[in-house]
Every structure is written in C-alpha cells, then in structure tokens.
Specification:
This protein is α+β, with helices and mostly antiparallel strands. It has seven helices and 15 strands.
Length: 253
C-alpha cells in the first residue's frame, strides 16, 4: 500500500498542483495529499473493513478489530510542493494502541524503510536490502542532530530558541522537513538524533517504530509549553545527554 501511494504521489503529480491551507498559511495540503490518502484508505478497507483508521487528511474512523492504521499520505508536503525529494508516504498499523508494523516510503529518494515490532528495521534501496542499526556515537559534541519546526510562527519562534541552546553543543544541525524520514534516518545512522515538539501520531507512528527496531531510543518528553511535548529519538549513547539538555531548556522557560 505504501508503495502504491508513493507511486501515485510521485508519478501523478500535476504541474499545476492545487493547494489549500489548514492551520496557517505555511500549513499546506495538496490535492495529492488527499488522493494518496483516499487510495490508502480504499485498499485498507477492501481487505480489512473492520479496522480503524487515523489519517492526517481524513480524520479518524472507528473500528472493531483492535487494529488501527495510522496514515500520513505525504509527510513533507511543503517539500513535495516545491519539488524537493525529501517527502514520504507513512503507513503504520497499531494493535490495541501499540504500533506493530510501519513503512516509510520515500520514492523520490529511491528508498523504503520498514519495520515490524520484534523483527528489526530495514532499508531497501537500489534493489538491495540492509538491516538498520542506529549510530554508535557516544559524544554529544560529535553528534549530527536533526530537528523540525511547526507551522505557526509563534511555535517556530519557541523552537528556534530551543535550537539556540542545542546547536553550540553538537557537531551540526539538519532540518529535513519530513518527520518520518528524520526518524527513519536516526535508525539508519544517517543522523545521531532527532527532536521536534508538537508532532502528531501520523508523524511518528511508522518512523518511530523503525528507529526503535534499529536500536534507537525514542521517547516523548513532557512539556507545558504551547509547542507541545517533544519527540526525541537518539542513538543510545547520547540519549541521556541530549534529553538533559532539552529538559533544561524547557525548565528554564
């Protein structure tokens, strides 16, 4: 299903892409977001009509089976809108509230990330498959850290302040623009850590499982700030150090 959604979004993208806005002028949704989610939902219900569904664009559908599908039809919509290749179709399955399987399909990058709880995580690329293993880094000063920003200007201002506290302590910062890929790349060892506040279930369900199954530590740090709780995924060797830095930033506000 993730592959089919990725092929639709990649190959059927119109030149005159129609967009709407949601929470703010920077929070865009395209006709392809909706079309991709419709494809995913129709395929799920054709095979599993009793399952529940939570989709970013279509809201929540209750089910009776104990299985719920969590969908982000195009994660990284702004990248997709501008023709940047860092976007993905994210599909995850929950059993009684626990994510048990997930795929992050990044067709413009030619990469697919997948995981099943207890069975590991994998990257498929160029016809090859490799098992993922999070970075073995142990020093925050040598860590490549990825982050993201909210759509509202007020939340971005708060996140920028947090970044000011983190940036001097690490090797470098990246901002990819697609949380599912950020999380998968923690699992792949391409970055040592990722943090972002205010994420939703569809942002983290598949990517979070991929990172966990690759050996990364994935936690939610409570925050009373308007930006919401902080999702933190790290290589095991730097988790406590980066966690403590972020907690200190929250507590000092």
């Amino acid at each position: 299903m993730a592959r089919a959604g990725g092929e639709l979004a990649l190959h059927e993208r119109p030149d005159d892409l129609v967009t709407d806005t949601k929470s703010s002028p920077t929070d865009v949704v395209t006709e392809m977001d909706r079309a991709t989610e419709e494809l995913l939902v129709s395929r799920i219900l054709a095979q599993r009509p009793d399952d529940g569904i939570l989709g970013e664009e279509g809201g929540e559908r209750a089910g009776s089976s104990g299985i719920r599908w969590v969908l982000d039809p195009i994660d990284g919509t702004t990248n997709y809108l501008y023709g940047l290749p860092i976007w993905a179709v994210s599909v995850a399955a929950e059993c009684d509230g626990v994510v048990v399987a997930g795929v992050v399909e990044a067709p413009a990058l030619g990469r697919r990330y997948l995981a099943a709880r207890g069975f590991g995580a994998w990257e498929e690329r160029g016809g090859q498959r490799r098992r993922l293993l999070a970075s073995g880094g142990t020093t925050l000063a040598e860590a490549m850290v990825s982050t993201g920003f909210a759509y509202s200007s007020e939340r971005r201002a708060r996140q920028a302040e947090d970044l000011r506290g983190v940036a001097p302590l690490v090797r470098d910062i990246r901002r990819l623009g697609a949380a599912s890929i950020d999380l998968a790349w923690v699992g792949a060892g391409y970055v040592d850590a990722y943090f972002e506040s205010g994420l939703h279930a569809w942002d983290v369900a598949a990517g979070g499982l991929i990172a966990e199954e690759a050996g990364a530590v994935v936690r939610l740090l409570p925050s009373s700030l308007d930006g919401g709780d902080i999702t933190l995924a790290t290589a095991p060797g730097i988790h406590e150090a980066l966690r403590d830095v972020l907690r200190g930033l929250v507590d000092s506000t």
